[in-house]
Specification:
The chain is built from 17 helices and 14 strands. The protein is of the alpha+beta class. The chain has three domains: about 1-225, Rhodopsin 7-helix transmembrane proteins (Rhopdopsin 7-helix transmembrane proteins); about 230-330, PAS domain (Beta-Lactamase, 2-Layer Sandwich); about 345-505, Alpha-Beta Plaits (2-Layer Sandwich), CATH 3.30.70.270. The longest helix is centred in the first third of the chain and has 31 residues, at about 60-90. Helix 1 (about 1-25) runs antiparallel to helix 2 (about 30-55), helix 2 packs antiparallel against helix 8 (about 205-220) and helix 3 (about 60-90) packs parallel to helix 6 (about 140-165). The chain has a five-stranded antiparallel sheet with strand order 4-3-7-6-5. A five-stranded mixed sheet has the order 9-10-8-13-14, with helices on both faces.
């Protein structure tokens, strides 16, 4: 019977050795390196107990009892470090490593040197069973310290994974529950040994620990649990200032950081494990296939983000994807401001001279294709220098703004106004013949003449003179914009010479 038990234990031990090798060489992440050492500790412990059951003398039993604790020395403290790194997303400090290993080191020392002090076992007796020798262990005080420590590590693991289970949904709940049961079952079964109810006095932990290994294997590798977790950890701590969203291969939400929550207010722990495509903004994110793209979030005052998309791979398989978000609203606004400086007058909300000429050239090309008339109004504020000299440049600026408003109130939405220079403005009138251009110009003159600017309880009025130039455009006729502007300018000076506050063509 005991031979059969030892063969089972050898099988369990070899399986854990293979799992340790598989984990170590296929998955090169720090947290899985810890797990591979846990598997190695299990293998040493289980194989050692298998040899203990096959021992023929009490000295052989004592030797393998000591061997087993080299495995236990690795199992429980490394399990605590495994939990710490998983839950807190960071490698434990040297101080934590020392604290975790103090009791296991003392346990190993007291076990190996037990013959000198009997703190671990007060006595080890040989018991005959079916022709085999088994050990009857009388526990010493440090043995119970070891048991308390062992159960404390299992309890701590269960508590932290219960938290992970509570805050997770779908796949992560299954993973967390597998690890919880893998931790609980060996602890429950070992209680039967501690209270003397195990068959043949066998220590049941080496057998039940195989259940733990199976549960962990399914959780870690069937669902890519820790490998994806390690990648997430690296991304989150390497890019702390960026918003990060991590999905699995089915686009289910795995993790996000606080910066991502500020971008998308629908992100919360309740939707972890759910398909992000079910959410409008999530679908918008996933629909982009580019490595780098931009999105706008918000309607009234949109914020702009540059998104970098990264696939997380292991060997040739895709584990999931990560979206890294960097806000670029300020850069967008700066680009917009630079565009405004390049195209708009700095004082008034109208085009500057460069942009005005560009729009005039576009309009001439359009009308040349379809034929039609095109008129230009050249507008100058009368006696503007005298206004500046008498009231100052601030009042002069207000006069310019007032004239621009007056012009905008009397032109069509399709007409284009720009500041030509100083106190001179130009209005482009597409599809407008000379007669209609004069009508518009006269309305502008009258309207501005009726406007007033109040300064220090003084009413200041301004008038304008307007020159009109018109060209008939067709496909057979070339129009020189420079010449047309020159004609409008000449008409303007004619209006000024004729007494100002009038129009001339």
């Amino acid at each position: 019977m005991l031979t059969g038990f030892s063969i089972v234990l050898f099988g369990i031990g070899i399986a854990n050795v293979l799992l340790a090798i598989f984990t170590l060489f296929r998955h090169k992440t720090s947290i899985l390196n810890i797990f591979s050492l846990v598997c190695l500790g299990i293998a040493i412990y289980v194989i050692g107990y298998g040899f203990e059951l096959r021992s023929e003398t009490i000295e052989e039993i004592k030797f393998f009892l000591k061997t087993e604790y080299f495995g236990l020395f690795l199992m429980f403290p490394l399990w605590l470090l495994f939990i710490y790194e998983f839950y807190f997303n960071q490698a434990p400090s040297i101080k934590i490593n020392i604290i975790v290993f103090i009791i296991p080191l003392l346990t190993l020392f007291f076990n190996v040197t037990n013959d000198f002090h009997h703190l671990f076992y007060t006595d080890i007796k040989a018991v005959q069973y079916e022709g085999f020798i088994t050990a009857h262990l009388i526990k010493g005080p440090w043995y119970y310290v070891h048991i308390i420590y062992s159960y404390a590590t299992l309890l701590i693991g269960v508590i932290f994974f219960l938290k992970a289970w509570y805050n997770s949904f779908n796949i992560r709940r299954i993973q967390s529950m597998l690890i919880i049961w893998g931790s609980i079952i060996p602890g429950i079964i070992e209680i039967f040994y501690l209270i003397g109810l195990s068959p043949y006095g066998l220590d049941l932990l080496p057998f039940s620990i195989s259940i733990m290994a199976i549960c962990y294997y399914i959780a870690l590798f069937r669902y890519d649990f820790l490998e994806l977790h390690e990648m997430i950890q690296d991304v989150i701590f390497n890019e702390p200032s960026e918003g990060i969203i991590v999905l699995d291969r089915q686009n289910r939400l795995i993790r996000f950081n606080k910066a991502a929550q500020k971008v998308y207010d629908f992100l919360n722990f309740k939707i972890v494990g759910k398909d992000l495509i079910k959410f409008t903004q999530g679908k918008e994110l996933i629909d982009h296939k580019e490595n780098i793209f931009e999105i706008a979030v918000g309607e009234d005052v949109p914020r702009y983000y540059e998104i970098r998309f990264t696939e997380m791979k292991s060997k040739n398989s895709i584990l999931g994807s990560a979206y890294l978000m960097k806000e670029i609203t300020q850069q967008k606004e700066m680009i917009q401001q630079l565009g405004n400086l390049a195209n708009y007058d700095s004082l008034t909300p109208i085009y500057n001279r460069r942009r005005l000429v560009e729009e005039a050239e576009k309009e001439i090309l359009r009308l040349k294709r379809y034929s039609g008339c095109f008129s230009i109004l050249m507008i100058d504020i009368d006696n503007f220098k005298e206004i500046n000299d008498e009231y100052g440049h601030l009042v002069g600026d207000e006069i310019i703004k007032s004239v621009v408003r007056g012009c905008q109130e009397r032109i069509r939405r399709t007409d284009i106004i720009g500041r030509y220079g100083g106190d001179e403005f130009s209005i482009l009138l597409p599809n407008t013949d000379n007669e209609n251009a004069q009508i518009i110009a006269e309305e502008i003159c009258r309207h501005i003449d009726d406007m007033e600017v109040i300064h220090l309880n003084q009413t200041i009025k301004a008038t304008v003179s307007i020159g009109v130039a018109t060209a008939a455009i067709n496909s057979d006729k070339e129009i020189d914009l420079t010449e047309l502007l020159k004609q409008a300018d000449q008409a303007l000076y004619k209006a000024k010479n004729n007494g100002r506050n009038r129009i001339s063509t």
